[in-house]
Write a structure and sequence with these properties.
With 180 residues, this protein is mainly α. The chain has helices at residues 2-7, 12-24, 28-41, 46-58, 62-75, 80-92, 96-110, 115-123, 131-137; strands at residues 149-151, 154-156. The longest helix is centred in the middle third of the chain and has 15 residues, at 96-110.
Length: 180
């Protein structure tokens, strides 16, 4: 990552790799800075947004995590670990209904054997919360880049991200591309 950044300091993929490395080294503040630079250079980098959201969540910054993970979900709607990470962020932010929706979506994508199934079983042990009811209870959330605040069952935010093609080269079940 450092060599690529020496050539092009704004390279989003290099910033993403730098952020992932810093997170893995236990340096979350620096990781957040690098990941913010990655999404600043390329707002449609779904894996960078996912990792930024996860790192923010680990730093107990739930509201910021929810915002980033909602954008990651909108950019990568068929990636189970993104839906699971958003479910965790919603749960930590006190949004149980939204968490169940995301965990259910992740289970639909990954099957019953993953982390999402365990999270869902914990929040809805008897399977009594119907997905259709949950979906009707949630207002659609606009794709966002700016920080927001939880209002009811959605995040209110300031700016929109334009529709972009999906970045589907993720290999790690939590953090995205480039991870063995």
């Amino acid at each position: 990552a450092r060599a690529a950044l020496a050539i092009d300091p704004l390279d989003a993929d290099a910033r993403f790799l730098e952020g992932r490395s810093l997170r893995n080294l236990g340096r979350p503040v620096e990781a957040i800075d690098a990941l913010r630079a990655a999404v600043g250079s390329r707002p449609d980098h779904g894996h960078a947004r996912n990792l930024l959201g996860l790192t923010l969540l680990e730093a107990d910054r739930e509201l910021e995590a929810v915002v980033e993970l909602e954008v990651a979900r909108d950019l990568l709607p068929d990636v189970a670990y993104v839906r699971n990470n958003l479910g965790m962020a919603y749960e930590r932010a006190g949004e149980r209904t939204a968490a169940v929706v995301e965990y259910r979506a992740a289970v639909d994508l990954e099957g019953d054997g993953g982390k999402s199934a365990r999270h869902l079983a914990r929040l809805d042990p008897h399977g009594t919360i119907e997905a259709d009811v949950l979906m009707a209870a949630l207002d659609p959330v606009e794709e966002t880049v700016a920080a927001g605040e939880i209002v009811g069952s959605k995040i209110e935010v300031a700016a929109a991200v334009p529709d972009q093609p999906e970045d589907a080269d993720g290999t790690d079940p939590e953090t995205g591309p480039g991870t063995p």
